[in-house]
TrEMBL record:
This is Chromosomal replication initiator protein DnaA. Gene3D superfamilies: 1.10.1750.10, 1.10.8.60, 3.30.300.180, P-loop containing nucleotide triphosphate hydrolases (3.40.50.300). Residues 156-284 form the AAA+ ATPase domain. Residues 1-93 are annotated as: Domain I, interacts with DnaA modulators. Oligomerizes as a right-handed, spiral filament on DNA at oriC. HAMAP family: DnaA_bact (MF_00377). InterPro entries: AAA+_ATPase, Chromosome_initiator_DnaA, Chromosome_initiator_DnaA-like, Chromosome_initiator_DnaA_CS, DnaA_C, DnaA_dom, DnaA_N_dom, DnaA_N_sf. Belongs to the DnaA family. It holds the Pfam family Bac_DnaA. Signal peptide: none annotated.
Length: 462
C-alpha cells in the first residue's frame, strides 16, 4: 500500500497544489520536502500514513495546515483512505539550524549602523526565547536571515510575513533578523520602520515635494522591514506607494519583511494586489506562549537584569499572566520598582501578590462565555459585535457570525436557543444551520480551518 502512495506521490502533491492553489513558494517550502515513509493499520482497520519532514517547527506547521488536504489528495489519486501524521527527522537533523547560527562567524555591528537602520540593540536572536508558540516563526526567521532575498528553490522566503497578537515578539524577531544580517554582512543596507513612520514620511515628502528622495530611501535597501502593516489599511495613496516599493525591491531580489496582527489574506482593508503579494513568500504565526515558555522568558529576563528571584514568584507570574510577553516583562519590572521604592524590600510571593493584583485575577482564569467569543471573533474580522448581532448577511459578517455560533457551541455549554437570543434574537433553526455550515466546510477548507484555529487560540491562549 505504501508503494502505491510512493509511486503516486508526484501526482498527489500536484493535485494538492492545483486544487488548493498553493503558491510555488508554499509548495517548494512545505510540500516538496515531505517524504512518505510508511503506513500503519490500527486495531479498527484505520490506516495512518507517516510522512517524514525536516524539523519540529516544520511538523507543527504542516500538521495544522496540510494534514486534511493531503488526506483528501491521497484518496483522490490512490483511493486509499488514511490519516496523515508527520514525523520529524532525527533530533540531530532538526537541531542543525540552531547550530549553524552559533557556528557562524559574526562581526560586531557598530552603533551608528544600528541607529541608521532603526534597530533596537536588545532585540536579537540571542535574547529571543524559543518555545512551542514561536518555534516555527523563529526557525523561519533564521532561514531568512541566512539567505535574505534568496529565490533559490526551497529557500524562497520573500516576503517574510510574521503575524500574531500584541506583545508576542513580532518586532523582536524582525530586529533579530536585521541584526543577524548585519553581523554577517556589515555593509548591508537595512531599514526598519513602523508602518506609521513609513506613512508619515510619505505625507511629509508629498508636502515638501521630495517624493524622489523618499522613494530613493526605501527602494535602495537590501532589506526593508515594515512593522504592523495592518495600520496602512484603508489609506489608498500609501498603499499605492507601498505596492511600487514592494515591486521595485522584489524585482531586485531584495528581502522584504512584514508584520501584522493577521495573516495576509485576512487584511481585508488592504488592496487585493498587496494582500496577494504579501502571500507570495512565507507567512508564519506567533502564538501566545505556553507555561514553559513563559517561565523561560521570565528566567531569561531575570538573569539579564542581574536578579535572582524566588522560583515561587516567577511561577506565580507565569501562571497568572498568560496572553502577552510584554505584560510578563512588565510584571517583573513593576516588582523591581516596588522593591526599590521600599528600600530594596525582598521580592517574595506576598509582595508579588499585592503589587500585581491589578494585573491579574488569580484563580479566576478568563471565563469563556458566548459574549467573550463574539468579542474575539468580531475583533478578528475587524467588525463590531453589533454587526454580528444585526440582520445583514454581507461578508465577512456572515462568516464571522457562523464561526461565532460554531465556537460558542464548541467552547461553552450554551444551548442553541440561548446563543440565538444572544446573537440578535435569531431562531433555533438559524443557529443549527450556522453550526452545520461550519462543521461541513471545515474539513475541506483548510483556510477556514486555519482561521478558526487562530481564533480559538485568541480566545483561549495555551
Ligand atoms: P509585538 O511586536 O509582537 O507586539 P514585541 O516584539 O514588541 O511584540 O515583544 C514584546 C516584548 O516581549 C519585548 O520586550 C520583547 O523583547 C519581549 N519578547 C517577545 N517575545 C520574546 C521571546 N520569545 N523571548 C524573549 N523576549 C521576548
Ligand atoms: Mg511590534
Amino acid at each position: 500500500m505504501i508503494d502505491k502512495i510512493k509511486s503516486g506521490w508526484e501526482k498527489i502533491i500536484t493535485f494538492l497544489r492545483d486544487d488548493y492553489e498553493l503558491s510555488p513558494v508554499s509548495f517548494n517550502t512545505w510540500i516538496k520536502p515531505m517524504i512518505p515513509t510508511s503506513i500503519e493499520k490500527d486495531s479498527r482497520g484505520n490506516f495512518t500514513l507517516i510522512i517524514t519532514v525536516p524539523s519540529t517547527p516544520f511538523k507543527t506547521y504542516v500538521t495544522k495546515k496540510y494534514s486534511l488536504s493531503l488526506a483528501v489528495a491521497i484518496e483522490e489519486i490512490t483511493f486509499i483512505r488514511c490519516n496523515v501524521v508527520f514525523k520529524e527527522k532525527k533530533e540531530q537533523e532538526s537541531k542543525k539550524v540552531q547550530k549553524k547560527l552559533i557556528d557562524n562567524k559574526r562581526h560586531p555591528v557598530n552603533d551608528l549602523k544600528l541607529l541608521s537602520s532603526n534597530l533596537n540593540p536588545a532585540y536579537t536572536f540571542d535574547t529571543f526565547v524559543v518555545g512551542k508558540s514561536n518555534d516555527l516563526a523563529h526557525a523561519t526567521a533564521i532561514a531568512v536571515a541566512e539567505s535574505p532575498g534568496s529565490q533559490n528553490p526551497g529557500e524562497h522566503y520573500n516576503p517574510f510575513f510574521i503575524y500574531g497578537g500584541v506583545g508576542l515578539g513580532k518586532t523582536h524577531l524582525m530586529h533579530s533578523i536585521a541584526h543577524y544580517i548585519l553581523e554577517h554582512n556589515p555593509d548591508a543596507n537595512i531599514l526598519y520602520v513602523s508602518s506609521e513612520k513609513f506613512l508619515n514620511e510619505y505625507i511629509d515628502a508629498l508636502k515638501n515635494s521630495n517624493l524622489a528622495e523618499y522613494r530613493a530611501k526605501y527602494r535602495n535597501v537590501d532589506v526593508l522591514l515594515i512593522d504592523d502593516i495592518q495600520f496602512i489599511g484603508g489609506k489608498d495613496a500609501i498603499q499605492e506607494e507601498l505596492f511600487h516599493t514592494f515591486n521595485a525591491l522584489y524585482e531586485q531580489k531584495k528581502q522584504i519583511i512584514l508584520s501584522s496582527d493577521k495573516p495576509p489574506m485576512e487584511l481585508k482593508n488592504l488592496e487585493e494586489r498587496l494582500r496577494s503579494r504579501f502571500a507570495w513568500g512565507v507567512a508564519v504565526e506567533i502564538f501566545s506562549p505556553d507555561f514553559e515558555t513563559r517561565m523561560a522568558i521570565l528566567r531569561s529576563k531575570e538573569e539579564r537584569d542581574g536578579k535572582n528571584i524566588d522560583n515561587e514568584v516567577i511561577q506565580f507570574i507565569a501562571t497568572n499572566i498568560k496572553s502577552n510577553i510584554r505584560m510578563l516583562e512588565g510584571a517583573l519590572n513593576k516588582l523591581y520598582a516596588m522593591s526599590r521604592l521600599n528600600k530594596n524590600q525582598e521580592i517574595d510571593i506576598d509582595l508579588a501578590k499585592s503589587v500585581l493584583k491589578d494585573m491579574i485575577t488569580p484563580d479566576a482564569p478568563t471565563k469563556i462565555t458566548s459574549e467573550y467569543i463574539a468579542t474575539v471573533v468580531a475583533d478578528h474580522f475587524n467588525i463590531t459585535v453589533a454587526e454580528l448581532k444585526a440582520k445583514g448577511r454581507k461578508e465577512p459578517v456572515a462568516t464571522a457570525r457562523h464561526i461565532t455560533v460554531y465556537l460558542c457551541r464548541k467552547m461553552t455549554n450554551d444551548t442553541q436557543t440561548k446563543i440565538g437570543q444572544f446573537l440578535g434574537d435569531r431562531d433555533h433553526s438559524t443557529i443549527v444551520n450556522s453550526e452545520d455550515v461550519i462543521t461541513k466546510r471545515i474539513t475541506a477548507d483548510s483556510e477556514l480551518n486555519q482561521t478558526i484555529e487562530t481564533i480559538k487560540k485568541k480566545i483561549s491562549p495555551q
